[in-house]
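Long-time lurker, finally posting.

We've been working with SDR family oxidoreductase (Pseudomonas jessenii) and I want a structural starting point before designing mutants. I don't trust myself to interpret raw outputs, so I'm hoping someone here can both generate the structure tokens and explain anything notable. Sequence follows.
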Amino acid sequence: MNSVQSQGTALVTGASSGIGAVYAERLAARGFDLLLVARDEPRLEAAASKLRSEHGIKVEVLKADLTQKEDVLQLEQRLRSDSSISLLLNNAGVAADGLLANADTNQLERMIQLNITAVTRLASAAAASFTKAGRGTIINIASVVALFPERFNATYSASKAYVLSLTQSLNAELDGTGVKIQAVLPGVTRTEIWERSGIDASQIPAEMVMEAGEMVDAALSGLDQGELITIPSLPDAADWDAFVAARHVMAPNLSRSKAAARYR
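Top reply, 14 upvotes:
Generated this for you. Predicted structure of SDR family oxidoreductase:
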């Protein structure tokens, strides 16, 4: 069995540009075949042709709009039925700008469908398929705004907090199954998500903006090191460990039969 066959197929959503496109290239270099998913089919086809010629792998392109339930269901069914898929990258997502009070709520609903509903359905399908196979990897792209919601748009921050929580809960559910899971929390990354959401990224200090290639390489290094949560910008992993430890300190007191003394 050669290395390409042994890696299986990586399903990458939002694969036509930015973080997803970089992941596709890096996973191809690791010997994965690819199933590339996005709305922009011509761009996907161009990327697929390049990846095939450079890495000698199989690349399939699937045009899908994950804000549309029928497209999500099609991809979900593929995950459940195709045993060659061994990695899911839940990368497709969109940001939003402005205050919740002034928001276009239809736009927010589409964002929730993409950032939360599609991610959940695909993670569920992958978890079922990978558990059955006793192997597989689920990577969910969240954001550092999950940890600092006051600094960004309310609904986007909440959607990424959901992805973080989903990953942590799913990790507990998958314990002992042979399935790996990771949430990646990038800071500001240089991609097209900003202009698509109407945000002027040129106003963000340069020292806060990471190139997509550096972000993905750090995330894959975190995966190789067995991290559940990878924060590419965070210099000292002990800071995250302390954050998790603080949660566990509170845990025994979060549900008790009596209200705390300060409320009585």
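Before you design anything, note these points.
The chain has one domain: 3-263.
The chain is about 45% helix and 15% strand.
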